[in-house]
Design goal:
By secondary structure, this protein is of the alpha+beta class. Helices cover 43% and strands 21% of the residues. The protein has four helices and three strands; from the N terminus they run E-H-E-E-H-H-H. Strands 1-2-3 form a three-stranded antiparallel sheet. A hairpin with a 5-residue loop joins strand 2 and strand 3. Helix 3 packs antiparallel against helix 4. The radius of gyration is 16 Å and the shape is globular.
């Protein structure tokens, strides 16, 4: 058996943000918090993969489609504006909060590279 040395993959980073679910929604009955997980290319800021803890697959797919490909180096505002324009569900406030949090995490991760 070949002895391969472990080589960590650091080209991507994982961001995880959480926000409280609104009371009385079907999502809140299943999850206490909305979870947003993003896998992002560290150097480019491009979101490669996105997962949101929504109840329906259609909502998860829709949001992943909006988030994937977005460049977090542009900041959160263009993405927040897009979500405001196309998402009209009861979890909007929680989703926007989680996106802001994830964008701040990315800024912190990138700032840490230059320190």
């Amino acid at each position: 058996m070949e002895n391969k040395q472990w080589q960590p993959q650091t080209a991507n980073i994982l961001l995880a943000a959480y926000a409280k679910m609104p009371v009385g929604t079907s999502a809140q009955r299943i999850y206490d918090n909305l979870a947003l997980v993003l896998i992002v290319e560290r150097q480019t800021g491009r979101i490669k993969q996105a997962e949101v803890s929504f109840v329906t697959q259609a909502a998860r797919d829709f949001l992943a489609g909006l988030l994937c490909g977005y460049d977090l180096n542009q900041g959160a505002e263009p993405l927040l504006q897009l979500l405001q324009a196309v998402y009209f569900g009861p979890l909007k406030k929680a989703l926007l909060s989680a996106v802001k949090m994830a964008a701040a995490q990315y800024e912190e991760a990138v700032a840490g590279q230059t320190d």
